């Protein structure tokens, strides 16, 4: 009888494990965000997230879409996850977040010909700032007195607004800004100010309504630890170092 119950218990555990297995590729969505996510879906974020899931025998695909649309698709259960997401109190009401796998540094960008003297958030009062629509720093920016926020679709548009004096400044991840400036010849026309105005840990995010949300997040966290231990995490970062950390000449 004892042997029977042991076998029954093992069967139940095996069935539970199968019910949590992911047999189809997980689908995420995000806007183009070089060097993290390129137009063809490749990039540092895609590689890190894919590697973490692959170590747990889970496949991952990505669809490129404007960030605001990607968030709507997540809300409507049209995708499984957002692969690059910042935690906010409001988002945490409906979204389950992974452990952070990177930290973004959001820097102020100004036109080189402007008279900006950046000394922290108080020095941005009464200016016009271009930002990416739907990103998780808007609540913070609204706390700066008389700062006018111009939401745009992508990094390129934000920098173009500053270059053409349609906005006084932009708020952009410094690696994304360096990449865009180098590839569009803006290196002498725009200035990246340090220190960063905001630092945001980067996570994957899944709707709490997703039936496998807990399992997917747990699998990702386990996979992230595994690729860090194996050295694969550092290898991926190193491949993007010339894009993501080399300042424009």
From TrEMBL:
Q: Which residues form the signal peptide?
A: 1-19
Presence of keyword Signal: yes
Keywords per UniProt: Signal
**InterPro entries, per database record:** Solute-binding_3/MltF_N
KW Signal (keyword) present: yes
Ranges for domain Solute-binding protein family 3/N-terminal: 24-244
Question: Which family, according to UniProt?
Answer: Belongs to the bacterial solute-binding protein 3 family.
Name of this protein: Substrate-binding periplasmic protein
Specify the species: Pseudoalteromonas rhizosphaerae
């Amino acid at each position: 009888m004892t042997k029977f119950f042991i076998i029954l218990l093992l069967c139940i555990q095996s069935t539970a494990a199968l019910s949590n297995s992911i047999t189809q590729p997980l689908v995420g969505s995000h806007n183009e965000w070089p060097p993290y996510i390129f137009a063809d879906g490749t990039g540092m974020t895609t590689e890190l997230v894919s590697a973490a899931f692959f170590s747990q025998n889970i496949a991952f695909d990505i669809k490129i879409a404007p960030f605001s649309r990607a968030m709507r698709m997540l809300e409507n259960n049209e995708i499984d996850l957002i692969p690059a997401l910042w935690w906010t109190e409001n988002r945490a009401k409906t979204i389950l977040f992974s452990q952070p796998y990177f930290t973004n540094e959001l820097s102020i960008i100004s036109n080189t010909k402007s008279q900006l003297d950046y000394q922290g958030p108080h020095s941005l009062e009464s200016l016009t700032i271009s930002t990416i629509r739907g990103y998780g720093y808007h609540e913070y920016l609204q706390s700066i007195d008389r700062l006018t926020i111009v939401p745009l679709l992508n990094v390129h548009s934000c920098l173009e607004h500053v270059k053409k004096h349609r906005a006084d400044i932009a708020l952009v991840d410094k690696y994304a800004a360096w990449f865009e400036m180098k590839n569009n010849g803006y290196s002498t026309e725009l200035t990246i100010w340090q220190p960063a105005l905001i630092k945001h840990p980067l996570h994957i995010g899944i709707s709490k309504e997703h039936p496998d949300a807990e399992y997917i997040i747990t699998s990702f966290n386990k996979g992230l630890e595994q690729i860090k231990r194996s050295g694969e995490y550092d290898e991926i970062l190193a491949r993007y170092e010339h894009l993501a950390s080399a300042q424009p000449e």
